[in-house]
Write a structure and sequence with these properties.
Helix content: 55-70%
Number of helices: 7
Oligomer: single chain
Mean pLDDT: 84
Radius of gyration: 41 Å
Shape: elongated
Structural class: alpha+beta
Strand content: 5-15%
Low-confidence stretches: none
Largest sheet: 4 strands, antiparallel
Length: about 375
């Protein structure tokens, strides 16, 4: 069988004739060659082997798209874990700074109390704030340790091989214009491509069912030759030859099973179309929400950055005033807490934007490009 449903057949026959009288033995050799080609039912792309190859291609394409989804999910999950790890490491650093300030404040209050310049209440208050700072630090260190273990387990690496430079500032990217972003996402989205692939596959299966209902019309061409010789398979003397071309027509009434299969195929195609339209609407809503969330979080980050700058200036002024006695204990403590809260809020906004960036990269396929993942 060859592509298109055609069949080629060749044959060789040999017979021996031994005369009753005479010393020689004669060999009669027959050669034949034939070609059969369907013209309607089971012809060309609807031939069984061609049909099977086409269906396998659709299945392979769907498998590749599903693998894309899994790989994107894995990459995005690891990136989310990385920024969770980064956030916890930065929180720990903030609490280390808070702990250091409280240690210095307690030392200052003890000195003041020793020389009669401070009260026991101020010293006890500073000691209590230091204990709170130490507790915050221990909690942050524990959460950081858990985050390291989680990402190490997913990457199948040792926990002690993970190093993180928290001194590097977070770079916030700007997404493309809304219409360009939505177009990129719709062009790439693997699930939309899966729906299209299934739709094409179902349409082809429907074509095959309709083709199976056609009559069989086969074109047959054959050639044969017979020769006699004193040697096996010899050319010898010519006996007979024939060339024949036939057109064979046959028709069978379609079975009820095929009719049912065709109706079920029509239902599957309709369901596929409805699911594709529903998914596309939902995707447009998700993309629009993502852009709105990005705009809001970007504005929140700008506010958080400004608030941290002011809180840092306030803390520096409070520290200087506390050192010379113009700022009281409670005002200094309030400035410390304000700065820690502002620093944590800025960190949270930065990480939220990085998480949104991961979603942008996932829906547009940029994650695959960034990490060098290609598909054949």
């Amino acid at each position: 069988t060859i592509p298109g449903g055609g069949e080629i057949a060749a044959g060789v026959s040999e017979s021996i004739t031994s005369p009753v009288r005479g010393p020689s033995v004669e060999y009669e050799t027959g050669l034949s060659l034939s070609y059969t080609q369907p013209l309607l039912k089971g012809a060309w792309k609807y031939a069984e082997q061609d049909y099977a190859v086409t269906i396998a291609r659709y299945d392979s394409r769907e498998f590749t798209l599903n693998q894309q989804k899994k790989i994107l999910e894995k990459i995005s999950g690891i990136r989310q874990q990385y920024w969770s790890l980064y956030e916890k490491a930065r929180r720990r650093d903030i609490y280390i700074g808070e702990k250091t300030l409280n240690e210095k404040r307690l030392a200052t209050e003890r000195k003041r109390f020793a020389v009669g310049g401070g009260t026991q209440m101020d010293t006890l208050s500073a000691a209590l704030e230091l204990l709170k700072a130490e507790q915050n630090y221990l909690n942050a260190q524990y959460e950081l340790s858990l985050a390291k273990k989680n990402i190490a387990a997913d990457l199948s690496i040792a926990t002690d091989t993970i190093s993180l430079d928290t001194s590097v500032s977070v770079e916030v990217f700007d997404p493309p214009p809304a219409h360009e972003f939505i177009a990129m996402a719709e062009r790439f989205d693997p699930q939309l491509k899966i729906y299209r692939t299934l739709r094409e596959k179902l349409a082809f299966e429907s074509e095959k069912l309709r083709n199976d209902k056609l009559p069989s019309v086969n074109l047959e061409a054959s050639w044969s030759r017979t020769a006699r010789d004193s040697l096996p398979l010899g050319a010898g003397s010519y006996l007979a030859s024939s060339n024949l071309v036939k057109l064979i027509f046959s028709y069978s009434i379609p079975s009820k099973k095929k009719t049912i299969a065709e109706k079920l195929g029509a239902i599957d195609r309709k369901e596929n179309r409805l699911e594709w339209e529903q998914y596309k609407r939902e995707l447009a809503v998700r993309l629009s929400d993502l852009l709105e969330q990005w705009d809001k979080e970007k504005q929140d980050l700008l506010i958080a950055v400004k608030a941290e700058e002011i809180a840092a200036q306030l803390l520096e002024a409070a520290r200087a005033g506390y050192a010379i006695g113009t700022v009281d204990n409670l005002s200094y403590l309030k400035a410390q807490n304000e700065y820690s809260r502002a620093a944590i809020e800025r960190l949270e906004k930065e990480v939220v934007l990085k998480r949104i960036e991961i979603l942008f990269d996932r829906v547009t396929g940029m994650a695959l490009t960034k990490f060098g993942v290609t598909f054949q």
